[in-house]
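Bug #2210: token dump truncated for Thymidine kinase?
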Amino acid sequence: MFIEPLHRKENINPRTGWIEVICGSMFSGKTEELIRRLNRAKIARQKIQIFKPALDKRYHEENIVSHNDNSIRSVPVHASSEIMTLAKNSEVVGIDEVQFFDEAIVEVCNELANIGKRVIVAGLDMDYTGKPFGCMPQLMAVAEFVTKVHAICMVCGEVASYSYRLSPSNERVLLGETDLYEARCRRCFNLGENADRFRS
Ligand SMILES: Nc1ncnc2c1ncn2[C@@H]1O[C@H](COP(=O)(O)OP(=O)(O)O)[C@@H](O)[C@H]1O
Ligand SMILES: Cc1cn([C@H]2C[C@H](O)[C@@H](COP(=O)(O)O)O2)c(=O)[nH]c1=O
Ligand SMILES: [Zn+2]
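Reproduced locally. Full output below:
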């Protein structure tokens, strides 16, 4: 679907940049898809640079790691402005867990695309309450390509778009995996604790 563009000599008809958003619930394969696209760009010998928010250290300090243990080297950053400086020399810029960045991330992605870079971001489209997560709606609006991926509902096996929180915490940011969250379909998400009787 996403074709790695051919290199062109600098200053002669430089190619356009663009933004790709990969979104979905937890466990839907966002990180796998991000890694797949970045690995293809690597094979095409394009200069890639990958970033993640420094707060996300669940599996590894630096690597981006998917729930099925695929991984790729990344640079943890504290603010979106750092990406602008660090990504100067790359052709393809990947960002994981983009929903955790400050709102300036939208302008950073736009500016990178405007100077000819392919920007691929992956993030949660909704938080644990089912509300749009941070910068995601803005990013989806300005992106050329938006891909929504889906998980499997852990209650009934249907297609899941929601991340159901298993703990009573009301903090928007609560890092965790299967210990704290499960993917759920719309019905089982809305049923909340009452969904247990449908568990197959
Ligand atoms: N409920 C689920 N539905 C689909 N995949 C799941 C589920 N629970 C665990 N997985 C695993 O998670 C992998 C996707 O992980 P990952 O790419 O890290 O997802 P995301 O970044 O969207 O959280 C799947 O390939 C599968 O091995
Ligand atoms: C729904 C939701 C999730 N989080 C946290 C939980 C995980 O640490 C990440 C999402 O990781 P994934 O790669 O998409 O599986 O976000 C959160 O802090 N708040 C939420 O509402
Ligand atoms: Zn369900």
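Output looks complete on our side. The radius of gyration is 17 Å. Marking as cannot-reproduce; reopen if the truncation happens again.
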